[in-house]
Specification:
Elements lengths: L1 H25 L6 H28 L8 H40 L14
């Protein structure tokens, strides 16, 4: 049971880190000012998620196990931070892609959605 919880927590932290990396790539150059400002809060949230995940894992290994009261005090904040981080990063990615699409539509004009489904072989 302890190994299962540890692997789950590590996989969740790794998934959050990959999502943060994707958001960083989409938001531009790694050392641009806007990218650093946008990524500051999610990076702090990822660090908080890592700390809470480690504390959750330690409490899971205690004699009370997964169903102890102290485990709830670390488990609920860990899952809340992780879920919030996923929502925030997803909204940042969607917002940047939507903004990029709007700016490209302003430059190249409106995109006809039926062109993408039309076969050139008929």
């Amino acid at each position: 049971m302890v190994v299962l919880e540890t692997v789950f927590t590590l996989a969740n932290i790794l998934a959050d880190a990959i999502l943060l990396w994707r958001c960083r790539i989409i938001w531009g150059a790694p050392y641009s000012r806007s990218s650093n400002l946008v990524m500051a809060f999610p990076t702090i949230m990822l660090l908080a998620s890592i700390v809470m995940g480690v504390m959750f894992g330690i409490q899971t290994c205690s004699p009370d196990g997964l169903y102890g009261k102290v485990t709830d005090e670390f488990g609920v904040p860990y899952f809340t931070i992780s879920l919030s981080l996923n929502i925030i990063l997803t909204l940042l990615i969607v917002g940047k892609i939507w903004h990029h699409r709007s700016s490209m539509a302003a430059v190249f004009g409106a995109i006809d959605h039926f062109c993408a489904t039309t076969s050139y072989w008929s």
